[in-house]
Amino acid sequence: MILWHEKFLLPEDTVSNLKKKYSNEYFLTGDPDWGQHYTGYHRNPMNSAGTVNGGFVDKELLDLYVPKLKSILKKFGLLDKKSIYSFNSIWGQLYKRELSAIIDVHNHYSEPRQLISWVHFVEVPEQKCFYFQMDDQKIYPDTQSSSDLIFYPSYAKHGVDKMTKGDDRFVVVGNITRLN
Prior knowledge:
By secondary structure, the chain is of the alpha+beta class. It has helices at 12-22, 45-48, 59-76; strands at 4-7, 28-31, 35-39, 85-86, 90-96, 103-106, 114-123, 130-134, 137-139, 148-153, 158-160, 168-178. The longest helix has 18 residues, at 59-76.
């Protein structure tokens, strides 16, 4: 399922600032009985279609990731002078063990223009929480340690298990959409 993997290390102060930003109650979602986590997904107008006050686009994440995303598209042979891509579907997610979050199996493929999805495991515990779902089987990629950056097809079904080890799990997630 993984199209590309590499290490992408962010400076410690950047990670600390991002975790602080996303630990704000503004980003808290979920049900206390089912599990909660902090996410910019429902605040991003590219993802939420306005369902939960969409309108927050994290410019800091765009500045950090767009150059990296373009370099990966170039490696794939997809970056040319005719193609226009959107990278605005990007958000941070902060999991705290005590909040018991689970992300059900889903995919990011709502239309054919959504080509590639990605996860940057910025700062994560040793426990592998992210998995791909194939039939009834969970497949946990080895490439989900801190600083791992993976790219996969947007149609790939995936989910996140409840964290049982470590205190925090911080990832940045996004989609690359071709606009033309």
